[in-house]
Design brief:
Length: 389
């Protein structure tokens, strides 16, 4: 609150009684601004807003108190301009014109004997206008936040609908693509994060968006999902996307070429994420986790497989068991050549053969036979899911 002097109060009330000329001059200036000139706000609406705004600001100047209606009007006007798509910079430019127009209007009313006192009180005029501009900004920013929440809610709802529909309904796919800002026939990368890596995935989505990818992040208790698509027709290699995911502990599906395939890709990425071991770091490609995915698909069957295939090794000593398992793992992860396995283990090939024979005698599985090798490899992955067992 300020205490207006007699000169400023009189001039403000005189100006308040004759606003029409002031409004027309100000409206002409505002309508010349780019956003207003483009037709975002009708001229009559601009004029009506000025009539109310100037009246309230002049009352503030004349009475020294902010009329309750000023804050309400300013914030409502800011909200409306945000909804009409007027950029904040244009709204503030119009606000600065308020100060110029009001000052000019007061100077026109002032006589020579009033000028000294008017100049001394100039800051009170700026304060009154600033109060109005502050309300405009508060309303504008509140509306922008609310519109952002509404858009995000709409994006979440349509992505959930796409998942529920499994991409089978072309209308749902088309509408979801429009809401999410995706090209339905473009290329998509899908990642599903470990439940504890939501913050990292959110940060990665920000980096991807700044790198030219369209992104949608969907929150889920079982692990947040991230769908990314290169903008336009720019090709982005999968290794680039993996690099942008950085240290995010997540599963990544193979790229898909249509939005309708994204629900399927989400399931694949989720499977890769579930299969990642507790010590796994960074993104895990499905192509590199097939055995883990199958082992993790049914924990009960995985435990049964590990017990039936590897359980007989419990009958021998720990040192021998470790040697046999090391030999088998090295062979299965290598070229399949006994000679290469021997080199990797720094031992003779006959030693490798003897260990394979011993493993076969104990488990009934010969890792040199493709079928048995596949079963043993899967049993080893299953055992890794539950080391204590």
């Amino acid at each position: 609150m300020h205490v207006p002097n007699e000169v400023l109060s009189r001039l403000a009330l005189e100006r308040l009684a004759d606003l029409q000329g002031l409004i027309e001059v100000w409206t002409d200036q505002v309508m010349a601004l780019e956003s207003y000139a483009g037709g975002l706000v009708p001229r009559e609406e601009v004029r009506e807003g000025a009539r109310i705004g100037f009246a309230l600001i002049l009352r503030h100047v004349a009475e020294g108190e902010v009329p309750p209606e000023l804050a309400e009007h300013s914030e409502r006007l800011g909200e409306r301009r945000a909804g009409q798509g007027v950029p904040l910079a244009s709204l503030l430019a119009a606000g600065r014109l308020d100060a110029r127009a009001l000052w000019q209007g007061l100077v026109e009313r002032a006589g020579p004997e009033d000028m000294t006192e008017l100049l001394r009180s100039a800051h009170l005029v700026w304060e009154a206008v600033e109060q109005h501009v502050t309300g405009l900004m508060a309303g504008y920013q509140r509306a922008v936040l609310e519109m952002g929440r509404q858009r995000e809610d709409q994006r979440r709802a349509w992505f959930a609908r796409l998942l529920d529909n499994d991409g089978r309904n072309p209308d749902v796919v088309r509408d979801a693509g429009q809401v999410l800002g995706f090209d339905v026939s473009g290329r998509f990368f899908v990642a599903v994060a470990d439940p504890g890596a939501s913050a990292e995935l959110r940060a990665a989505a920000t980096v991807m968006a700044s790198s030219g990818l369209r992104c949608h992040r969907h929150e889920s208790p079982t692990g947040d999902m991230l769908v990314a698509q290169p903008s336009g027709r720019v090709g982005v290699p999968e290794k680039t996307v993996l690099g942008l995911l950085g240290g995010v502990r997540c599963g990544v599906s193979p790229p898909v070429d249509e939005l309708a395939q994204v629900p399927h890709a989400v399931r694949l990425a989720a499977a890769a994420a579930r299969a990642a071991g507790p010590d796994t770091e960074g993104p895990q490609r499905l192509e590199e986790r097939w055995l883990d995915v199958f082992a993790a698909h049914s924990p009960e069957l995985a435990a049964e497989l590990a017990e039936r295939v590897l359980g007989p090794l419990a009958a021998i000593g720990a040192a021998e068991r470790d040697r046999l398992l090391e030999t088998v793992r090295t062979h299965l992860s290598g070229t399949g050549s006994i000679a290469d396995t021997a080199v990797a283990l720094y031992c003779h090939r006959n030693t490798v053969q003897h260990r394979f024979a011993r493993f076969r005698d104990l488990t009934g599985r010969d890792v040199r036979a493709p079928g048995d090798a596949a079963v043993v490899a899967l049993a080893l992955r299953a055992a890794a899911l539950n080391p204590a067992r």
